[in-house]
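New to this. Look over this protein:
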Amino acid sequence: MVCSVGFEKLSAIQQRGIVPFCKGLDVIQQAQSGTGKTATFCSGILQQLDYSLTECQALVLAPTHELAQQIEKVMRVLGDYLGVKVHACVGGTSVRQDQRILASGIHVVVGTPGRVFDMLRRQSLQPDHIKMFVLDEDDKMLSRDT
């Protein structure tokens, strides 16, 4: 999967992180920007999904709209041949459109905490089948300054 999108060689973090993630183990990644962390957790998620089940099975939280949309794009590119259904739920976009897309069946939701919480509160996002959770840039997500 990774080679089909132009990666010639796995980075160190990808070599250490993809297999444990694919085995369903808890993984904590910490590395410099641009080292392949996003591709690592996206690959792990894509390997664990049950594609016959069109329910949200993975939730990725990101601190900004831009990062959430970037993660959605990586997930789409890596999962192109697998038929992954992914959607970014971020503020500043149509709530009704998010609700329609979620109702149509999504494997992975990537989003910002505020919009994801809103979708959960409205019961548009059902957590019953979520088996994978990624907190990207957790230092920013858990900081009191944000």
About this structure: Helices lie at 12-22, 37-48, 65-78, 95-104, 113-121, 138-141.
